[in-house]
Amino acid sequence: MKYLIILLGGLFVSIASTAQDASDEQADVPPGWWLIPKTKTQMKIGGYVKLDLIHDFNPIGSPDYFDVSKIPTDGSEGKSTHLHAKETRLFLDTRTQTQIGEIRTYVEGDFYGSGGAFRLRHAFVDINDKWLAGQWWSNFMDESMIPATLDFEKPGAYAFARHAMFRWKQKFSNDAYLAIAVEEPSVLAQTPSQPGSFESPLPDITARYRITKGWGHVQLSAFAGALRYRFTAGGTDDVSLFGGNLSGQVKFLKKDYLIYQIVYGPGIGRMRGGLSAGLDANGNLEALTDMGITLGVQHFWIPSLSTLVVYNQGGLDNTAGQPGSDIYRVNYIAANLIWHFTDRAFAGVEYLHGTRENINQQRGDANRIQFSVKYAFN
C-alpha cells in the first residue's frame, strides 16, 4: 500500500506538472485560438450560420443571390419567395512560428456548391505575410471594401473574384505595401463561329499598391492577361487584356464609412465574371472595354442599428459582332437596415433593385426584399 500511495502521488504530480505546462503555453495563445498539443501551431475554427428569406417581385435567374446579369429582358412577369442557408460558412485558420517567420494556412468554404454541396472559397499558405500560394481574393480587387450587403452576390460591374495564385508582397512601411501576383485566368468570351477552343497562353499578372491610414485606405491595382482561340482548322486569334482599379474606404464619425471603386479597361470583365472579349464585324476577337463605378455609405444610427446604401453602374463598349441580346448596361442598388442584437449576430432587411439593358435596347427590371439572420461562432 505504501508503494502504491507513492506511485499514485508521483503520477498526480506528473499530471499536474503537465497540465501546468499546457496551461502556461495556452496562456500565450490569443482568445479563440487553441495550441495543438506537442506543436507550435495555433488553430482557430470558425464561421457563421446565415438564413436568407428572399421575395422577388419580378423574375430573375438567380434566386439565391441578386445577379443583375440574370434579369430577363423579354417582358416576363412573376413573383417568388425562397428560403435558403447556403451562405453558411466554415473556416480553419492556423499559425505556426518557424525559423523563417510565421506560416499561416487558411481553408474556407460555404454551401453554394451544386445542390447545396460544400464548396471551396479560399485555401492558401502564407509565409511571413510576404509569400502566398493558394486560392484567395484576386490581387486586383479590394477585399477590404466589399459592401456589407445581405445579398451574397454584391454589385454586378464590380471587381470581385477569387483565383488560384502565387503572390509576393513587399511592405514599405506599416501603412504601405506593394503586391504582385500571377493568377488563374478566365476564358469566358464570345465564341467565334469557326470550330475551335479557347486557351490561356499565360497566367494573369496583377499588381496592387495600398496605403492605409487612420482615416481609411486607398488602393490602386492593375492586371494584364491574354486570351487565345485556337481554330480546329489551324491558326489562332489572340487578344491582350488590361484593366485598372481605383478603390478605397474613408472613415468618418465613430463607425461610419464611405466606400468607392472605379474599374476600367479592355477585358475587365474577366475580373467580375463577365465576358472579356467579343467579336468584331469580321468575326475576330476584340477585347470588351468595360467600366464600373461603385459608391456606398454605411451609417450607424445607434451602436446596434446600422444602414448600408450602395449603388453600382456598369457599361460596355460592345463590339459590332455581339448579338443584340448581350448586356450593354447594368445598374444595382441595395439599401438595408441591420439590428446587431449581440456582438456576433444580427437580423436585417434589405431592398435590392437592378436593371439590365441589352444592345438591342431591350430592358428588364428586378426588385427584391431580403430578410437575413446571421450568427458568427468564431
What does this structure look like?
It is a single chain. By secondary structure, the chain is mainly β. The protein has two domains: 1-28; 48-85 and 142-376, Porin, CATH 2.40.160.10. The chain is built from one helix and 21 strands. It has one helix at residues 2-27, and strands spanning 34-35, 41-56, 80-84, 89-98, 101-110, 119-127, 131-137, 162-173, 176-183, 196-199, 204-213, 216-231, 236-252, 256-266, 277-279, 285-287, 289-302, 305-317, 327-342, 345-358, 363-376. The protein has a 16-stranded antiparallel β-barrel. It has a two-stranded antiparallel ribbon with strand order 15-16. A hairpin with a 5-residue loop joins β1 and β2. The two termini are 50 Å apart. The relative contact order is 0.14.
Architecture blueprint of SSEs:
Blueprint: H1 2-27, E1 34-35, E2 41-56, E3 80-84, E4 89-98, E5 101-110, E6 119-127, E7 131-137, E8 162-173, E9 176-183, E10 196-199, E11 204-213, E12 216-231, E13 236-252, E14 256-266, E15 277-279, E16 285-287, E17 289-302, E18 305-317, E19 327-342, E20 345-358, E21 363-376
Antiparallel strand pairs: 1-2, 2-3, 2-4, 2-21, 4-5, 5-6, 6-7, 7-8, 8-9, 9-11, 10-12, 11-12, 12-13, 13-14, 14-17, 15-16, 17-18, 18-19, 19-20, 20-21
Compose a concise summary of this entry:
This protein is 7% helix and 57% strand. With 378 residues, it is mainly β.
Work out the number of β strands. 21
Strand proportion: over 45%
Supply the CATH architecture of the largest domain.
Beta Barrel
Helix count from the secondary structure assignment: 1
Helix-strand sequence = HEEEEEEEEEEEEEEEEEEEEE
What overall form do the CA principal axes indicate? globular
Low-confidence stretches: 1-20
CATH superfamily of the largest domain: Porin
Distance between the termini: 50 Å
The share of residues in helices is under 10%
